[in-house]
Prior knowledge:
Layout: E1 7-11, H1 16-27, E2 31-36, E3 47-51, H2 57-71, E4 76-79, H3 94-122, E5 125-132, H4 145-165, E6 170-177, H5 190-194, H6 205-217, E7 225-228
Parallel strand pairs: 1-2, 1-4, 2-3, 4-5, 5-6, 6-7
Helix pairs in contact: 1-6, 2-3, 3-4
Amino acid sequence: xxxxxxxxxxxxxxxxxxxxxxxxxxxxxxxxxxxxxxxxxxxxxxxxxxxxxxxxxxxxxxxxxxxxxxxxxxxxxxxxxxxxxxxxxxxxxxxxxxxxxxxxxxxxxxxxxxxxxxxxxxxxxxxxxxxxxxxxxxxxxxxxxxxxxxxxxxxxxxxxxxxxxxxxxxxxxxxxxxxxxxxxxxxxxxxxxxxxxxxxxxxxxxxxxxxxxxxxxxxxxxxxxxxxxxxxxxxxx
Length: 237
């Protein structure tokens, strides 16, 4: 998957999985446009850091426009930016609703529209959503209906877009994750979180990245929700 001419746009790219994806795509020869609200400039001339709130339609449009202006094209969009809020259903607030809908759905919708317009002009492109296995297998001790609502919407949109654009050289996929060992999970929570997976451990950031890279390479795969979750979605646990 090495081609210096190709360009990937990655949201939520300042830390964790997003930061790892930036490096992985650079290692594969891609130039990268990396976005988050507070991302810092990169010393790598082939990484354009673009700060802004991806839920803002104007930011989404500018992000794709800047990618084309700087690097001449866009080949892959990874919708990695996300908010996860776990609390009892009746405890969710209007602010929780706005944050989850804004980042998880609006943050997918507007930039994906802009990217697909570009892909149509090129006759090729790939979109990947980062989702969660909680959509398929809710966990009694993890009440997170807003994650199921928003990420479930992404799963459905992934399949719908895959069919809509299959004849135009555009693939659309998603990676549904279990719990990944990122900075958002303090070390003292790891043992309890590991027990939620049949494999008995947390996923590593590299394992999430490997799922995305598999889909990037798998040219005959579209409309796929790839579970990288330690067996979580396979059955009751």
